[in-house]
Design a protein that fits this description.
730 residues; Rossmann fold; Immunoglobulin-like; 6-stranded mixed sheet; 15 helices; 34 strands; elongated
Length: 730
């Protein structure tokens, strides 16, 4: 026997009140001298015996009445087995919970039949049809707002109506986590006479449990008197080919120039798939054009990376997608979206050091024209080094420092934050004097780079133009030189060898550096220093004829041009991807929007979400809370302007539709719930077993009315004994 309201058992302490009153009323008889009457003494003894019996009887009736009242309020219930063996017809109201797995894998069809989600909803509706007066059914789903908390229902009609609105969604929570939440809410309902949890799922292995749910359990309060059943609704051998990843390999993407895109295709089925077609579509949904196509042969359980060459014709944040044809089984993951960023212009800040010439740099930047040849690809702002400290660097994509005489501590910190946030820095040296080298080394140290140890130059005053070194080799595999050299040359790329009269001696520091152009003296001429989301390029010679003849050679313009293209395409400006149903972050540079206006996300179906926004140095960080569940390309808007685009895709784990063994799944769910036995109701007899388990949970008998009737009967008996039995008058 159990109690629906065990706290009321504290009322049993009130049974001590009649006992206290009984002993309080006991008074010692006083001795009174009287004439010797033996007959009177005999009558007195018989009367006192009857009076004591009456008092003890009243005490027992009162104590039992109070105890029965306390037990009635505690709502005792016989266990189902005892109630059935006793032939009891009354039953205790049952608290039930139905968890419907509505992840995207439930949209699969087995043998052309109805979807797994439709079968799960049918069985849950059959469960609701077994409800009786007093029962409560709590409906939950693994995906949706609040992870599918649909509410509690007292009748079958309302429960069926709620079930009809359950649709498959991306970003489902693990089944074990949702089951634990449902078990806790059953425990909070206060109904311990009958509690049952039913899980309707296709047993997708990859989203069945998570480490937290499996290891911690649901606690003794949630698992006490809990019956759990697993109702598998999947069927057929899983066959699925998915696009699990898309990456833009080209670091520099320019309109009219080919860019490399790779996609990963994975076969989760048990059969080999040959000639699986994959295509790249460029443009908005409904207006997209196929720009590349390839095929792949996939073995069971294997993945393959395919490459595409895409040539964008327009600038901006271009929506795109990779789509496979004829994969079948699970169409939700046949498409993976991405964004191809072709910058409209690069904002470059050119800082002229005192006494330094920037003529060649300005001419090189002005030579970069758009495909129409009417506007420069670089929007250049030139300032003197004295104005650098008061300039807002967040409005630029790249900064070019041409031999500044000094760099104050605040300026070095601002440049460090700029690069860390995704900006690019191109640094040219100068003839060091005083503390100039120390300032340069302090800046390089702030960026995670090495040190400048001195200058290599001709010591002869009569021959000031004698070269001291030249280029030895170039790392042509680096993205900065992508497409610059002809890879078909058997003897390797031909690289100009300028005469360098003066170079800064640079010693590399951390592992985040890479030498792009090596000198014959063993030192670097062009050094890349990665820092945060951005990068710094250090050139060992100033852009002046006093340092080298490089500015007058044909290599200088494309080298500077590619360097700034590379620097302006760093992490803060590159396209980002979010995962459906999971929290994510989008970093929007200040140059892309008004820092004072709120940003919002507009989905492919017109839905709008205003994410949480955090102001950073030169950027705004958008934080999504997992409410985005429709895959596609979203626009980041500010007022009526589109700031950028971001792709939202499925978690690759959802593409693995292979099912777990039912008994193994039941054991893992039981471990997560903190119970030993989870029934598996599968096969043709699953529905009958479901009904049988429900009725077994409803067979308990409530005894509160019995104890209440006993308490009333005892109170009536106490009143009759106290009023009509008067032994003292006998």
């Amino acid at each position: 026997m159990s109690f629906l309201n065990p706290w009321m058992l504290m009322g049993l302490a009130a049974a001590a009140v009649p006992v206290a009153v009984h002993f309080f009323n006991l008074r010692r008889p006083r001795r009174v001298d009287f004439s010797s009457l033996a007959f009177v003494r005999q009558v007195e003894e018989r009367t006192m015996q009857r009076l004591r019996l009456k008092r003890w009887l009243l005490l027992a009736l009162r104590v039992l009445a109070v105890a029965c009242l306390a037990l009635a309020f505690a709502q005792p219930v016989l266990s189902p087995d005892i109630a059935q063996s006793a032939g009891g017809a009354a039953r205790a109201p049952t608290a039930m919970a139905a968890v419907v797995d509505n992840s995207l894998s439930m949209t699969r069809r087995a043998g052309g039949q109805e979807t797994a989600l439709r079968r799960a909803k049918d069985r849950a509706e059959a469960l609701a049809g077994q409800m009786r007066p007093g029962d409560r059914l709590r409906l939950s789903a693994t995906a949706g707002r609040g992870e599918g908390q649909r509410g509690t229902f007292r009748n079958a009609g309302a429960a069926r109506e709620a079930l009809s609105g359950v649709e498959a969604q991306a970003g489902a929570a693990p089944l074990a986590r949702t089951a634990r939440q449902a078990a806790r809410r059953l425990a909070e309902s206060g109904r311990t006479g009958g509690r049952a949890l039913y899980l309707f799922t296709d047993l997708q292995r990859s989203t069945l449990t998570d480490t937290l749910a499996e290891e911690s359990g649901s606690g003794p309060e949630a698992s006490e008197n809990l019956r759990a059943a697993l109702v598998p609704v999947g069927g057929g051998a899983p066959q699925n080919v998915a696009v699990t990843d898309v990456s833009v390999e080209s670091r520099i993407v320019e309109a009219g120039e080919p860019a490399q895109v790779t996609a990963t295709l994975e076969n989760y089925g048990t059969e080999a798939r040959e000639g699986v077609g994959a295509s790249v579509y460029l443009g908005a949904e409904g207006n997209a054009q196929r720009v590349a196509r390839t095929t792949a042969d996939l073995q069971p359980g294997a993945s393959q990376t395919v490459s595409f060459t895409v040539t964008p014709r327009r600038r901006g944040w271009r929506p795109a997608r990779v789509e496979i044809e004829g994969a079948g089984g699970f169409p939700a993951d046949d498409t993976r979206h991405f964004v191809l960023h072709v910058p409209r212009e690069r904002r470059v800040l050119l800082v002229r050091g005192q006494g330094q010439a920037t003529r060649y740099v300005e001419l090189a930047l002005a030579s970069g024209r758009s495909e129409a040849g009417q506007e420069s690809l670089f929007q250049t702002t030139t300032i003197g080094e004295g104005r650098l400290a008061g300039t807002d660097l967040s409005t630029y994509d790249a900064v070019v420092l041409v031999g500044p005489r000094s760099l104050a501590s605040g300026t070095r910190q601002a440049l460090g934050r700029f690069v860390e946030g995704g900006g690019g820095l191109l640094l040219f040296p100068r003839s060091f004097a005083g503390g100039a080298r120390a300032d340069y080394n302090a800046l390089l140290g702030r960026l995670g780079g090495g040190q400048i140890t001195g200058l290599s130059e001709s010591s002869s005053a009569s021959q000031p133009q004698r070269p001291v070194t030249s280029f030895e080799r170039v790392d042509t595999d680096h993205p900065l030189f992508e497409g610059v050299f002809d890879p078909s040359r058997a003897s390797g790329p031909r690289v100009e060898r300028p005469a360098l009269y003066r170079v800064a001696d640079y010693d590399a520091g951390a592992a985040g550096e890479q030498t792009l152009i090596h000198l014959t003296n063993g030192r670097p001429f062009l050094q890349e220093i990665r820092h945060g989301q951005g990068a710094t390029l250090f050139m060992a010679a100033a852009p002046s004829e006093a340092w080298s003849d490089l500015p007058t050679r044909g290599l200088f313009v494309p080298l500077l041009y590619r360097s700034l293209f590379y620097l302006s395409a760093n992490g803060g400006r590159r396209a980002q991807t979010l995962t459906a149903g999971q929290p994510g972050e989008i970093r929007v540079r200040a140059a892309e929007g008004d820092a004072d206006a709120a940003l919002r996300l507009v989905g492919p179906q017109g839905q709008e979400v205003t994410p949480r926004q955090q102001r950073l140095f030169g950027a705004t960080l958008l934080q999504t809370s997992g409410r985005l569940r429709t895959p596609g390309v979203y626009e980041v808007r500010q007022g009526g302007d589109r700031v950028r685009r971001v792709a939202l895709n499925l978690d690759p784990a959802e593409s693995d539709v292979r099912a777990a063994d039912p008994e193994e799944a039941a054991a893992r769910i039981g471990k997560a719930l903190g119970i030993e036995d989870v029934a598996v109701l599968s096969g043709p007899a699953g529905e009958a077993n479901l009904t049988r388990m429900l009725r077994a949970g409803q067979a308990g008998r409530e005894l509160w009315d019995v104890f209440l009737a006993l308490a009333l009967a005892l109170l009536v008996a106490e009143m009759l004994v106290a009023r009509h039995w008067t032994p003292e008058e006998a």
